[in-house]
Amino acid sequence: MRNTAVQLTDLTLGYERVPAIKNINGELLTGSLTALIGPNGSGKSTLLKGIAGILPPLCGSCCVNSAQRVAYLPQSSALDCTFPANVLDLVSLGLWPQRGLRLRHRAEDRQRVANALQAVGLDGFGNRSLSALSGGQLQRALFARVILQDAGIILLDEPFNAIDGSTRLDLLRLIKQWHAQQRTILVVIHDIALVSDHFPQTIFVNGELMAWGETQTVLQGDLPLPSAALANAGRFTLQRVAEQ
Ligand SMILES: Nc1ncnc2c1ncn2[C@@H]1O[C@H](COP(=O)(O)OP(=O)(O)OP(=O)(O)O)[C@@H](O)[C@H]1O
């Protein structure tokens, strides 16, 4: 697994022994930037949870390069923002893989948290309660936590949902910085134009693996996605894995 960050072998994942996504084979190369696309309910979040180690395989295996830490950012709608915590609490959690849960912040840690908040444009938001953040501000805070996790493998579930254009650009810039640092990045996205413009690799799932490869090859046909997702993205021919 020298150049392999994640290896999936006949991987089937699901809930209460009912498969949600079946027989996935493939590998994420170290330093790759990959979009994960597919219709609602096609198993994208399930696959991310499997790679993050949150969901054990029903069959097959998911091997993650043990030399690399994994950062997983769930859909922000899955987070309970009524929890009595502020932005500093949330972002500082990114330090626990390195410092442990009972961390006492050193001056160096406080500086790293401040730097991460600055990098996502949330300077001065540290004491703001999570419940008082807008959707875009919450997404920025979650990205600050990912910065602190300093992981080699970064899994992001729909980070561009319900955010405005400038937040989207800022977050995209961060993803590109991580890519330039040779981190391995997998991002669930519904916006096919964004995938086409910014992601070199694409995985397309629909309960099983439909295609995995260069984005322009994968997006060469009619994808069974809502027409809104295809707006401005042209027509694509789907190259099925089975036909390769
Ligand atoms: N906790 C759960 N318990 C039981 N079934 C689940 C659970 N989470 C997801 N599922 C089911 O697994 C299948 C895949 O769901 P998943 O959330 O992975 O899809 P998705 O592609 O991420 O969808 P979306 O684009 O809507 O976020 C769906 O049929 C869903 O109903």
Automatic annotation (TrEMBL):
Q: Does the keyword Signal apply?
A: no
Q: Which residues form the ABC transporter domain?
A: 6-231
Q: Which UniProt keywords apply?
A: ATP-binding, Nucleotide-binding, Transport
Pfam families noted in UniProt: ABC_tran (PF00005)
Q: Which InterPro entries match?
A: AAA+_ATPase, ABC_transporter-like_ATP-bd, ABC_transporter-like_CS, AztA-like, Metal_Ion_Import_ABC, P-loop_NTPase
- UniProt GO MF annotations: ATP binding; ATP hydrolysis activity
Q: Which protein family is it in?
A: Belongs to the ABC transporter superfamily.
PANTHER family assigned to the protein according to its UniProt record, in alphabetical order: IRON TRANSPORT SYSTEM ATP-BINDING PROTEIN HI_0361-RELATED, METAL TRANSPORT SYSTEM ATP-BINDING PROTEIN TM_0124-RELATED
Protein name stated in the entry: Zinc/manganese transport system ATP-binding protein
